[in-house]
Amino acid sequence: MASDTVKIPTPHGAVRVATAGEVVACEAWAGAFADHRQDHRYYRIVEETILQGFDYRYFVLEDGDGHVRAVQPFFLLDQDLLGGAGKTIRRLAGGVRKVFPRFLFLRTLMVGCAAGEGHLDGDGNGKAAWVATSLHAVLQSYARRFGAALVVMKEFPSTYRGPMRGMATNGFTRIPSFPMTRLRIDFPDFETYLSKTLSKNARKSVRRNLREAETAGRIEMDVVTDVSPFIDEVYPLYLQVFERAKLRFEKLTKEYLCRLGREMPDKARFFVWRLKGRAVAFAVTMVHGDALYDLYLGMEYPLALELHLYFYTFRDVLNWMLARGLKRYCSTPLGYDPKLRLGCDLMPLDLYVRHRSGLINFFMKRILPVLEPTRNDKVLKEFSNYAELWGDDGGR
Prior knowledge:
- The protein is of the alpha+beta class.
- The protein is 35% helix and 27% strand.
- The two termini are 41 Å apart.
- The model has no long low-confidence stretch (mean pLDDT 90).
């Protein structure tokens, strides 16, 4: 699909669509998302290495004087609306799909990142609200031009609820996506963390799991910024975890992992654990400010279950962070049971959804709370700040 050079006016300027090759020359793109771990380099890596039928594009937002103030990535895909639905709904829909294979698959214009949470290009001095208002004015028009029936703002942190309030009250429905989790590092060592953060039973369980892991022999950890020399060794570990996942969206490639380290060495950190010289666990992380983001995990099964490697790798990552004075451990969605036991709380992510048809959107606003993905995860309800998934304060 060629880029759409037609500008659509907004209350504050105009918006046009560009390709990656076109935004490279844009001064605003060079500084886009500099306050986040996913800066402009990350979006280029994702676009060129994670395909899966995604059609990547960029909104270029101009002010009233024609100056480019922001660039906002988006992509087009065929979205399965039943991806997060419960078993009963999926079973009922499965019968319909035997006759109509495309039932509840919709061409979708999705604003955000295909491999990570979404952000608006500009968080300070009201710029994020300006971006949200500008996008709201044009998304329906561009959805029509691209043949998309559905528009989704994908997995935006709840701190954007203020700037994006105009969307949630004017056409879009805000529903929770699977949240990230976080742990505040306000302790000097791992033992203090166990005693201050976990219950007595949880402490005993973690210590027992760590002892069982050590019975297999010494597990050694390496941390590198470039995983290329080891990619054939660790990528199969990632695939084992990916294939076990019940819910999937993006699938990483070897090229993504290699380029992440080579092109973002200031942020990328790869942890590799070896038992008797053989890689048995692998973690893809990024460091930004005082936080480490634990993004993707790879493990050898069934060994990972036998040795409780998740807890072993968590302990090692936490110790690595403590040695470098990092203060926040953030982990991507899903796998909530061990994160609950380890004392993490939730970092809400929101989806803003609307159908291009006003009539269908009227009914969709009432159906989406039934289809939204988090309602079927029983563990989420056990987190102390679960109410923030729907709350208006964004957890601030």
